[in-house]
Inverse folding.
């Protein structure tokens, strides 16, 4: 008896919201309470809060405000616990932080009708999202990103991940959050390098998709550097909007293909983070990766000198150092080895997004290694001249 294959297909609609506020846990701010009530109007929903240690350090009253807020809205919110986890990329470099979150989910009996609320920078958001995605095959997640980079990029997508084998985001899931809440109040306590670092992702999306957005950034480098909140909010909003639109309309939300335009500048960034022991912020590494790929695009005649110079000048005016911090030929070879690692991460054939103009992405499927070495040297020479 011959049995025919059984073939079945299905589709699942995903909907999630990006909300904007200030003082999300202030007593007179109903946004968080209303969000949870919209999920279940039948009674209080269990909540586990996970807070980045750096956020806790700068906002020591936050756990108390959360508890008071939940007590105030006890008809909708059932507080279980607040867990503080180590902030920064190190929380993604071993499994101890993931286990902490999983243990808290288990101890507090967080189920698939409960919520984990992640409050922190991009690394903590990534790590907590991964833990939430694998607990009970997925518990509900709300992200409250607290840095520029996480508000405009890391927290607004559908990816969660941790690092392994010295490779960025080697383990991960695609699991959309229930919602993201961007609270501008958290940005005021950022160090200057974190304030600026997140702008790299805005530069990235503007260069591959929106020349007018790049022009806006270039005209407001002074205001961004001097921490003008209104200008930064506009940059965050447009950057997040473009990231979310690409996920929804790019035709590949779970990245099954090889082309990843939102990873422009990232093949080098991921490797530089590892080579520097994650002393570089992700946004700082992305800025260096963009500078390197822009220089390579110029050397391979994809863009003229004037375009290369304008892009790099804008990033320098924002305060980015674009030098590639390599101490030896061995480290340079390791950096270039990141191209093959990037291909593995993408799957399929190598696809590196470059530029043919501002707002115009251009995919290539091979890299001239000698030319890329030249690009590293030229970026470093230019950076040395500017420092001098």
């Amino acid at each position: 008896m011959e049995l025919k294959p059984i073939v079945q297909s299905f589709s699942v609609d995903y909907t999630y919201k990006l909300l904007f506020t200030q003082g999300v846990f202030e007593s007179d701010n109903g946004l968080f309470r209303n969000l949870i009530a919209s999920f279940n109007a039948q009674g209080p929903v269990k909540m586990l809060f996970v807070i980045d240690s750096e956020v806790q350090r700068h906002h020591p009253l936050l756990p108390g405000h959360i508890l008071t807020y939940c007590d105030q809205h006890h008809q909708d919110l059932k507080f279980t616990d607040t867990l503080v986890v180590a902030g920064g990329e190190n929380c993604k470099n071993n499994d101890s932080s993931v286990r902490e979150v999983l243990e808290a989910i288990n101890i507090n009996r967080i189920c698939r009708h409960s919520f984990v609320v992640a409050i922190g920078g991009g690394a903590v958001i990534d790590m907590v999202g991964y833990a939430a995605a694998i607990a009970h095959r997925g518990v509900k997640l709300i992200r409250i990103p607290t840095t520029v980079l996480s508000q405009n990029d890391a927290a607004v997508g559908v990816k969660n991940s941790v690092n392994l084998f010295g490779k960025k985001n080697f383990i991960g899931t695609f699991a959309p959050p229930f919602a993201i809440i961007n609270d501008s109040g958290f940005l005021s306590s950022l160090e200057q390098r974190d304030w600026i670092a997140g702008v790299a992702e805005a530069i990235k999306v503007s260069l591959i998709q929106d020349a007018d957005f790049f022009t806006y950034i270039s005209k407001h480098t002074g205001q961004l550097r001097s921490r003008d909140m209104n200008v930064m909010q506009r940059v965050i909003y447009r950057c997040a909007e473009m990231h979310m639109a690409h996920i929804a309309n790019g035709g590949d939300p779970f990245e099954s293909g090889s082309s990843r335009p939102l990873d422009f500048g990232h093949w080098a960034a991921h490797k530089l983070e590892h080579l520097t022991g994650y002393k570089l912020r992700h946004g700082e590494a992305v800025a260096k990766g963009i500078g390197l790929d822009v220089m390579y695009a110029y050397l391979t005649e994809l863009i003229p000198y004037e375009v290369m110079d304008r892009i790099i000048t804008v990033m320098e005016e924002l305060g980015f150092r674009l030098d590639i911090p390599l101490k030896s030929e061995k480290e340079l070879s390791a950096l270039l080895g990141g191209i093959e690692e990037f291909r593995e991460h993408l799957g399929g054939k190598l696809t590196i997004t470059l530029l043919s103009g501002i707002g115009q992405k251009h995919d290539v499927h091979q890299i001239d290694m000698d030319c890329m070495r030249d690009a590293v040297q030229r970026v470093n020479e230019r950076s040395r001249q500017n420092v001098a």
Notes: The first strand starts at residue 17 and ends at 21.
